[in-house]
Design brief:
The chain is built from nine helices and no strands. It is an all-alpha fold. The chain has one domain: Rhomboid-like fold, CATH 1.20.1540. The longest helix is centred in the middle third of the chain and has 22 residues.
Length: 199
């Protein structure tokens, strides 16, 4: 029996985020503050190319181990399933788009900074509810997850919370859209065989 790097995108993202957190915690590098977080409206500099990079990299930074564990317990659970279903490159693309959407919304609308992978967590949660979707159908699991998570986050966002619930909502919206428009890797591979059999 041997260890297998079974989900390269999920594991690489998790390990790199952990490395940044360890360096900041024990070596006082301040990578999170300078590289892996994004400033809010009024501070974000649209003339600075470096700030554009942080639209993507803010998902790597975390405030501490509690913040990290709360996000990556979900990512390590759901990521390998989604990576197997959609493929590593597709999942990387969806994570990148989700990071961009949440980062851009924060830079345009909110005055507070943003960091952490919670937007990606909610993208994965909603996307995972589409694992057995069929054409022309809406999975009941998707509707139940949507009701439990997004309505809860909308309620929290109306309260004066310090957590960036909007990133959760934006990530959930991204996951929902990806679930409807992205075919699974398994389906796309099996489609040509079915066509050949019917011909």
């Amino acid at each position: 029996m041997k260890l297998r790097y079974n989900a390269p995108v999920t594991l690489s993202f998790s390990l790199f985020s952990l490395l940044v957190l360890l360096l900041d915690t024990f070596a006082r590098t301040e990578f999170t503050a300078n590289l892996f977080s994004i400033p809010g409206r009024g501070v974000f500099n649209f003339a600075d190319p470096f700030h554009y990079a942080r639209l993507f990299t803010h998902v790597v930074g975390h405030l501490g181990f509690t913040h990290f564990i709360s996000n990556f317990s979900f990512i390590l659970l759901l990521g390998p399933i989604l990576e197997e279903k959609y493929g590593s490159l597709s999942l990387l693309f969806m994570m990148t788009v989700t990071a961009l959407v949440t980062g851009l919304l924060n830079a345009l609308i909110f005055s507070t900074g943003l960091l952490g992978a919670s937007g990606i967590v909610f993208m994965m949660i909603l996307l995972a509810s589409f694992t057995n979707i069929r054409q022309g159908e809406i999975p009941l699991t998707f509707l139940l997850v949507l009701a439990m998570y997004l309505t809860g986050e909308i309620t929290k966002s109306l309260e004066n919370s310090s957590v960036s619930e909007f990133a959760h909502i934006a990530g959930g919206v991204c996951g929902s859209l990806f679930g409807f428009i992205r075919p699974s890797q398994a389906k796309s591979r099996s489609a040509p065989r079915q066509n050949r059999g019917e011909a």
